[in-house]
Structure formats: structure tokens, C-alpha cells
Amino acid sequence: MGYENEGKAGSDAGGGRGRGGDAPKARFGEEALERTLFASRWMLAPFYLGLVASLVALLVQFGREMVHLFHHMTSAPGQEAVLSSEAQTTIYVLSLIDIVLMANLVIMVVLSGYENSVSRLNVVSEDRPSWLGKLDASGLKQKVFNSIVAISAIQLLRVFLQAGQATEKELWASGAIHVVFVLSALCLSLSDRISSAGKKS
């Protein structure tokens, strides 16, 4: 009886080892492929570095607009000027605001996009933006569209201030483009609300 029980126990243990060996395991090639695909997210890093480099171009353009503004302020108003001094100053200031909004948009896309798609930013600082780490892909798209609408509104205002120089076709085209951006932002916001309501339900 004792030998029979030991034989059964040995056969059960052997069967357990057999079943454990037959358990599904990830193949080496599959693991290597998954790790390669996961590491491919770092290929996005040069794109974000390129966007950071584009800030240099925006900074140069900002400096040029500042030079134009100071030159306009220090020069005597010409008698043949098409626009008034106030309107021309407003146009230069709107150009500066346009560049600042564009630079803010680039920073937002770089930081949020990098953190959402590449790796978390392990930066502990009191100057850390409040929105960093809180924007998902949907929130980032909404912020981008809102910034585009604001930039489009500034461009439209500049065109209307230059109404004496712009043709009627250009005025209508600028207004239509701005309406398209506004409607696109509204549609995106509405779709996000519907999707978030569906997830909650």
C-alpha cells in the first residue's frame, strides 16, 4: 500500500511538471518584436526637438516685429500713409501676440505630446506648469484647436484693420477660414463631451 501511494504521488508530480511545461509562454521573437515596437516611441523625440528648434525661428520673427514697432513709433508719420498711426501700431502689436500664442502652442504640444507618447517628465520644480501631466490626447487636441481659433481671430482682425489694402475677396476668405476653425473646434468639443458621457454611463 505504501509503495502504491508513493507511485501515485510520483506520477501526479510528474504530470504536474508536464502540465506546467505545456503552459503557454511568449516566444523570444514575439517578445523582441513587442520590445522593438515599444521602443519605437523614442523615434518621436527628434520631432519634438525639431519643434523646439522652431521656437528659435519664432524668436527671430518676434525680434523683427519689435524692430518694426519701435521704428514705427520713432519715425514721423508720413502724409502718404494708407493706415493711421493707431491702426498700424495695433497691427504690429497683434503680430507680436500672434507669435506669442504660436510659441505657447508649440511648448504645449512638445511637453504634453512627449509625456503622453514617449516618456514621463521626471522634473520636480516649482515652475512646473499646472497643466503638465493633466492633458491627455483629447485635452491636447482641444487646447490646440482653441489656440488655432485665437490665432485665426487675430489674423482676421489684422485683415480688417488693413481693409483699405485688402480686397473684398481676401476679407471674405479670411472670415470664412475663421468660421471653419470655430466650427471645427465646436465639433471637436462636442464629440469629446459625447464620448466622455458615454464612458461615464
Explained architecture:
By secondary structure, the protein is mostly helical. The protein has two domains: 2-34; 47-200. Helices cover 76% and strands 0% of the residues. It has helices spanning 2-21, 28-39, 45-74, 85-117, 137-161, 168-200. The longest helix has 33 residues, at 85-117. The protein starts with a helix and ends with a helix.
Average pLDDT score: 78
Helix content: over 70%
Along the chain, the helix and strand elements come as HHHHHH
How many distinct folded domains? Answer: 2
User: Helical region count?
Assistant: 6
Beta-strand proportion: under 5%
Please tag this protein with its features.
201 residues, mainly alpha, 0% strand, extended
Give a short overview.
The protein is mainly α and 201 residues long. The chain is built from six helices and no strands.
List the helices and strands and how they pair.
Layout: H1 2-21, H2 28-39, H3 45-74, H4 85-117, H5 137-161, H6 168-200
Helix pairs in contact: 3-4, 4-5, 5-6
